[in-house]
Give the backbone structure.
Amino acid sequence: MSQAARALAYAFESGALALPTTGGRAFFLRAEVIPLKELDAEQSFRPEHLRLTQRGWSVVPRLDGDAHEPGWELGLVLLTKHKEENFANIARGWSLLAPGGRLVCAGANDDGAASLEKHVGKAFGLADKISKFHCRVFWLDKGERVPPDYWRGLAKLQPVGAGPWLSQPGIFSWDHVDDGSALLAQYLPDDIAGTVADFGCGWGYLSRHLLDHCPGVARLDMIDAEHRATEAARANVPDPRASAHWLDLITEAPPTRYDAIVCNPPFHAGRAAEPALGQGFIVAAARALKPGGHFYMVANRGLPYEPLLKEHFASFETLTDNNKFRVSRAIR
């Protein structure tokens, strides 16, 4: 349980907040396992979604407000370190509430919760707040004041810059093409063919590059652990050869085996670099490739991935190294 989730649970245990007692329902956005009952949970990050399911929670990747008119009496939102994602989730949470309902937000001080509390107080006015476990918990009651238009716009797919892309907060590099993916695209050959996958597809930049430049691709699986990413990838890559899959590649098997895999692996957990995530993607790619299959990967050059490539592949080589990113090709 994160510190923010602990602080949120404490707010109820201490009596500062109370769950509905007359049959009313409560929802929980960016849900984690906490010692509260009867919550309709939304969690779009696959590993946490699976953890909630295993603990017996009712959880979906995205709550549908239309199915619960006139709305929930209470809403909980766990804040992340991404300001725009928090704005979007608060706006969505407000829209899911019944008139007069209460929205409770909890976040870590180190992730900017104090600044967000000020933004929310200015937009809505706060009913109350507490501090615990180096976190802030604050809440508001749904009245006549509505979220800023900018916040509401962030809660849905929107253009990425001036390009042909759609994305949304909660996805890696949601508002621009990240430098690593752009570099990898430059070194992908146009003879990639057969059954191909994009591991950690994000909003679909590399997938669309493959289909635009590699006519021999017969099938492309776009796989990501963030459900919001698969939504964006479907919108950005309408090619009938492509399909999006919401999977945690560290613990779940991909749909099939592949002739080639491209990957810009995630390596951030919380606030620190976590090479183990990228290492898990390398192992997953080795298992998913057919004999002789090719794996194309970009990663921050300082991460210790080369020993793992040597261990799990017949051969590998560096295609480019610009002192920030390294692009590698490995053969199974």
Notes: The CA atoms of residues 139 and 194 lie 52 Å apart.
